[in-house]
Amino acid sequence: MLAHQKMYQTIEFGWAYLSDLSLRETYLIETYLDKTGKTVDAGTGGGRILLSLKTLGFNDLYGFDFVPEFIEVAKQRDASHSIVYDVKDATCLDYQDNFFDQILYLEQIICCIEDDSARFNALKQAHRILKKGGIALFSFLSFDARIRSPMYLPCLVYLSLLRKLCKSQHSIQYLPCLKLGRKAGSHRQPGSGTFNWLALLDRPPYTYWYKLQEAYQVLRAANFEVVAIGSDYQISQNKMHLLPETLVNQPLQGMLYFVCKK
């Protein structure tokens, strides 16, 4: 987490100034969330999602991030000072039990945690702060989508061979960031960043890319009820699925999205 924190404080600080919702986020929010519910945005960055929710009519909003500089920007961007922002670590939250009606983990925040047990603890914390019957939205980096991509498959093969030669114990699902330096602007058309040449040397920080069945199982293990699953492709078709088995022969593109209940 410290490596990611330093990265976002420096070369990736542009995340603080992104704006607007993506089409996938808009679909999930409009389909599954209640504007009257107490809502928290995990890994809020500069408050992009919360500012958009406020515009949509949500009025009981909270956000947290482990980068203090992001929270300062988020507070400055909220002219009405009606959103409650705090510096917090997703693996050790101090919100009360059953505090929120809705929780949003839509910036792949779980995937930035480089320890297996810490990732699971973050999911348990998410479950703890959600009310019984509340809605949770999660997004995960999709290993299935990446390994199916002709553009990224050679990189995965290269990293796998490099780790064998170096006798690295890292799972191939831990991947270095290929691009860094996202520019400020609309989330719909973000700056693409520049290629991270240190990725060829397999340098951290790493993000963890989930397999579909794995993400489903870990959410169930954290006691969430999964009510809808899909990738960018399924959302573009307005057709989420209930079980991962029904997605086995479906196209998987972009991120994995899970809608859960407590």
Count the E strands. Answer: 13
Number of helices: 9
CATH architecture: 3-Layer(aba) Sandwich
Q: Unreliable stretches, pLDDT < 50, 5 or more residues?
A: none
Largest sheet: 7 strands, mixed
Percent of residues in helical segments?
25-40%
**Which structural category do the helix and sheet elements fall into?**
alpha/beta
Q: Mean pLDDT, rounded to whole units? A: 92
Strand content: 15-25%
**Judging from the principal axes of the Cα atoms, what is the shape?**
globular
CATH H-level homologous superfamily name? Vaccinia Virus protein VP39
Order of strands across the biggest sheet? 4-3-2-5-6-13-12
Rounded to an integer, what's the Rg over CA atoms? 18 Å
How far the N terminus sits from the C terminus, by CA atoms, comes to 27 Å
Q: What is CATH's topology name?
A: Rossmann fold
Please render the helix and strand layout as text.
Blueprint: H1 2-9, E1 18-19, H2 23-32, E2 39-42, H3 48-56, E3 61-65, H4 68-77, E4 84-87, E5 100-105, H5 116-129, E6 130-140, H6 143-147, H7 153-165, E7 174-176, E8 179-180, E9 185-186, E10 194-195, E11 206-208, H8 212-221, E12 225-231, H9 232-236, E13 256-261
Parallel strand pairs: 1-9, 2-3, 2-5, 3-4, 5-6
Antiparallel strand pairs: 6-13, 7-11, 8-10, 12-13
